[in-house]
Design a protein that fits this description.
CATH superfamily of the largest domain: MetI-like
Structural class: mainly alpha
Length: 348
């Protein structure tokens, strides 16, 4: 009986080990499977797109192949060259002209004006002969600048109001939440258009006005999300202990409650960036955003809508840039929420 029991135990252990080896063999992935697993687990493509956006926004003068404001009506609505050699890529040689003669000098100037390097007009020219690729690159700088200022103000104002509403409660909470409801009910586009008519054409104040308009809609999501976190944090034991120890409300909020809301603020901010870029593009498209000649994606899309049949590239490439950036930011925000929230964290 003892030998039979020992044999049964040995067989069982062997089957478990064999099953484990078989399980490990099943879990091994091929090289394409490992690449797909890595791409699915980490936001590789959104990070690449955001890195390109950030790089173009910071180093736009060095990345852009041409001056974004330079126009040449001789090349208006020029189709994309895609970097191929064209009849206009010929470099004019001064040795072919006698620059001491007025007619020869005029011919040389005309030939030079009607030529451009191969790196120019890769994505075509707009209705004023400006390089589309250069304006898309500089448009990334404008979107980043406007969104950064508006988002910073939204984080500060919205988080502060959310902390106050969640911690103090009562009438403070009621008043602040009704303020958010009223603010969300306002027709923002109509208000922006009215303000734009009054202020946007006053020279250098235009960009500041656009930042102010976008900041008006940047703060409301932070209020509700931070308030919800504070309501769940303020009843925890360490908050009660700090209150019993004599900590003031300001110290409780600053030292003990606010750090617990950082993950929520980060997730909301990452999701909000794409929406703010879309808002800035919408305002520019409607004529209430960044004015000419400053390149902005929404304004570039608006410039090409009257030439959509003969010059589709004017609107397509700025619109494609808006789509890629907003989608990548939304995907990154969803991934960040899943990683930071224990209830939504995906281990595989």
């Amino acid at each position: 009986m003892a030998n039979q029991a020992e044999n049964i135990a040995t067989t069982a252990s062997t089957s478990v080990i064999g099953g484990g080896n078989e399980l490990r063999r099943v879990q091994r992935r091929s090289a394409p499977g490992q690449v797909w697993y890595f791409v699915r687990r980490w936001p590789v493509l959104p990070l690449i797109i955001m890195a390109v956006l950030l790089f173009c926004g910071i180093f736009a003068p060095f990345v852009a192949p041409a001056n974004e404001l330079e126009n040449s009506l001789g090349f208006r609505n020029l189709p994309p060259t895609w970097g191929r050699a064209t009849e206009y890529n010929v470099v004019v040689d001064p040795a072919d002209y006698d620059l001491s003669i007025t007619a020869e000098r005029s011919a040389y100037n005309r030939a030079k004006k009607n030529s451009f390097p191969r790196s120019k007009y890769i994505l075509g020219a707009d209705n004023l002969g400006r390089d589309v690729l250069s304006r898309v690159i500089f448009g990334a700088r404008i979107s980043l600048k406007v969104t950064a200022y508006a988002l910073t103000s939204g984080i500060i104002i919205g988080s502060a109001l959310g902390l106050a509403a969640g911690y103090f409660g009562g009438w403070t909470d009621e008043i602040l939440m009704r303020l958010v409801d009223v603010w969300n009910a306002l027709p923002f586009i109509l208000i922006a258009l009215v303000i734009a008519q009054q202020f946007l054409h006053q020279g250098g104040a235009a960009e500041g006005v656009v930042i102010f308009l976008i900041a008006l809609v940047a703060w409301t999501p932070f209020v509700r999300q931070v308030r919800a976190d504070v309501l769940s944090i303020r009843g925890l034991d360490y908050i009660m202990a700090a209150r019993v120890a004599g900590a003031s409300p300001l110290r409780l909020i600053w030292k003990h409650i606010m750090p617990g809301t950082f993950s929520t603020i980060l997730v909301v901010a990452s999701l909000r960036v794409g929406q703010l870029i879309l808002t800035e593009s919408t305002l520019s498209f409607l004529g209430a955003g960044i004015p000419d000649p400053i390149p902005a994606w929404g304004k570039s899309v608006s410039d090409g809508r009257n030439f959509i049949e003969e010059a589709w590239w004017i609107s397509l490439f700025p619109g494609l840039a808006i789509f890629l950036v907003v989608m990548s930011l939304n995907f990154f925000g969803d991934w960040l929420r899943d990683r930071l929230d224990p209830k939504l964290r995906q281990l595989d």
